[in-house]
C-alpha cells in the first residue's frame, strides 16, 4: 500500500505541472496534505462529482466540499509490535463565502486515527474546518 501511495503522490506531483489556469470568475481551492505518505483528493462539490481530483474550482458563494484523505497510522499510536494501519477517510468542509478570482487552500492531516482538514484564504487565515464523514481500513 505504501508503494501505491508513494507512486500516486509522485504522479500527482507530475500532474501539477499540467493544472489548468484558474478561471477568474470562479474560486480555486488547492489541495495539500501536510504529512508524508498521504493522499488528498477532491471528491464532490455540493453532491456533484468533482471534475478533477487535484483541486476544486467553484462558483462564488456557499459550497460544501467533500475530500478523500488516505494516511497511515503510525505504530506508536497502535502498539509496540504493530505495523502501520492505513486509513481511508472522507471529510466535509462547508464555506459560505467563496469569492471569484481568489485562491484558497484546503490542508489535511491526522493525529493518530483522527483526520483533520482546514480551509485557508489567501492571507493564510483559517476560514473553515472539516468534519469527518467516515473512515475505513484499507
TrEMBL record:
PROSITE patterns, per database record: PROKAR_LIPOPROTEIN (PS51257)
Upper lineage: Bacteria, Pseudomonadati, Pseudomonadota, Gammaproteobacteria, Pseudomonadales
Designated name of the protein: Lipoprotein
Taxonomic source organism: Pseudomonas fungipugnans
Amino acid at each position: 500500500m505504501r508503494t501505491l501511495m508513494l507512486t500516486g503522490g509522485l504522479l500527482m506531483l507530475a500532474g501539477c505541472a499540467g493544472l489548468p489556469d484558474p478561471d477568474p470568475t470562479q474560486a480555486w481551492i488547492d489541495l495539500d496534505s501536510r504529512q508524508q505518505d498521504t493522499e488528498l483528493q477532491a471528491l464532490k462539490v455540493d453532491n456533484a462529482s468533482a471534475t478533477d481530483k487535484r483541486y476544486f474550482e467553484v462558483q462564488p458563494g456557499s459550497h460544501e466540499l467533500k475530500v478523500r484523505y488516505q494516511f497511515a497510522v503510525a505504530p506508536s499510536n497502535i502498539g509496540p509490535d504493530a505495523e502501520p494501519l492505513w486509513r481511508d477517510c472522507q471529510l466535509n468542509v462547508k464555506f459560505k463565502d467563496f469569492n471569484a478570482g481568489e485562491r484558497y487552500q484546503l490542508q489535511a492531516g491526522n493525529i493518530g486515527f483522527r483526520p483533520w482538514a482546514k480551509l485557508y484564504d489567501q492571507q493564510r487565515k483559517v476560514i473553515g474546518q472539516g468534519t469527518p464523514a467516515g473512515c475505513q481500513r484499507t
